[in-house]
Amino acid sequence: MRQEELKAAGQKSEAQVQAGEDKSPGTPRTLLPGQTTIGVLGGGQLGRMMALDGIAMGYRFVALDPAADAPCGQVTPQITAAYNDRDAARELAQRADVITYEFENVDAGVAALLTEESYVPQGSALLYTTQHRLREKAAIEAAGVPVAPYRKVGSLAELTAAADELGLPCVLKTATGGYDGKGQAVIRQQDELEAAFRQVVPGAAEGAEAPELVLEKFVKFQCEISVIAARSASGEVKSFPPAENIHVNNILHLSIVPARVAEEIRQRACELAERLVTGLDAVGLLAVEMFVTEDGELFVNELAPRPHNSGHYTMDACATSQFEQHIRAICNLPLGDTSLLTPVVMVNVLGQHLDGVIERTGQADGAAGKLGVAPKLHIYGKTESKTGRKMGHINLLCKDTGDGLSWVEQTNLWRN
């Protein structure tokens, strides 16, 4: 469909994006393999894995990313330009029949331009919501889903007052940006308030106004789980089995599926995720991270409107991967079967693990044979390996998740 028809579909201006307004992308369009080019805003590992699944289905791809040798650009054509480059965004719109994104921190002006000049079934309202933690929490509550108690904070004085109201411990976070533990600080005692404020807002003086922050009451939880839910452009909804997630230094280390919680909790988690993906009119994937308390309550922590690290297990352990499902959703194909075919443990490969993991692939794996585990390695193709940077992951297919966890322990690679 060309520009005149796309504009007629009723897309929004940048001002409407910033005001939180959103118009539907119009009548859902079924975009078939062999006839469709998918544009991906972002060229990281999520775009790469999406493209690999989509290419196998018969779709073409083009990515926009500022890195010259981006992971997605290694397997698809790439436009190399900054994310806020309007000319590059227009080129992406011209070369693609449909556009999606692999990360949510998309420039608002570019998002508005793309929804005006191309077909973006995900729209931009959900981006606007999930780019800001306070808006996100309000939207979750509006859908009738519980979140941990929180307060808006804009200064050290407001932080002190909010901490008195919520009680300690609490977690201070920036309202925008931040991931893998960046842009946040845990506060356990009253005398840590000022240090936490200065950590999250570097250079801020006492009493000075800060960018919008959010203070969240620390939820005493039994474990963290996440559910990846999908909704197609025509409204079909399916969710994947919940993953139990274990973090180390605020970075996801392990995802364990089935999650080691009661079946009733797993079912309720899927229901909440499906309520959110429907209530937010999302198209594509919505990752819903939740806390499970000791008495079985569920509190939603964060949302991500895209494929998610905790859904990587689906690539080898489910009838349909999260990446194929995302493509099906935005192209308005029937959603795929989300059944779990085998228990699985996903372990992230960070920069400090990469050399050892690669070396191990050339050796006989006695531990895997003994435990009955099948390791499936996925490397992302990033040009620079850094400590703490996600460079790949391994899906450990097993008869019991305890065997997969034993394999991780016995390899001795994840102790640093």
* Main β-sheet description: 9 strands, antiparallel
Radius of gyration (CA) equals 21 Å
Low-confidence parts lasting 5 or more residues at pLDDT below 50? 1-23
Shape: globular
Question: Structural class from helices and strands?
Answer: alpha+beta
Our count of helices gives: 15
* N-C termini distance: 51 Å
**Percentage of residues assigned to helices:** 25-40%
State mean pLDDT (0 to 100 scale): 90
Beta strand count: 17
Q: Name the beta content range.
A: 15-25%
Explain what you see:
The chain has 416 residues and is α+β, with helices and mostly antiparallel strands. The protein has 15 helices and 17 strands. Strands 9, 10, 11, 12, 13, 14, 15, 16 and 17 form a 9-stranded antiparallel β-sheet that branches. Strands 3-2-1-4 form a 4-stranded parallel β-sheet, sandwiched between helices. Strands 5-8-6-7 form a 4-stranded antiparallel β-sheet, with helices on one face. The protein starts with a helix and ends in a 5-residue tail after the last helix. Mean pLDDT is 90; it is low at 1-23.
Q: Secondary-structure map with pairings?
A:
Elements: H1 3-8, H2 14-18, E1 37-41, H3 45-57, E2 60-65, E3 78-80, H4 86-95, E4 98-101, H5 108-117, H6 125-130, H7 133-142, E5 150-153, H8 156-166, E6 170-174, E7 184-187, H9 193-200, E8 213-217, E9 221-231, E10 237-239, E11 243-248, E12 251-257, H10 263-279, E13 284-293, E14 298-304, H11 314-317, H12 322-330, E15 344-350, H13 351-361, H14 366-371, E16 374-379, E17 390-397, H15 401-411
Parallel strand pairs: 1-2, 1-4, 2-3
Antiparallel strand pairs: 5-8, 6-7, 6-8, 9-10, 9-11, 9-13, 11-12, 12-15, 13-14, 15-17, 16-17
Helix pairs in contact: 3-12, 4-5
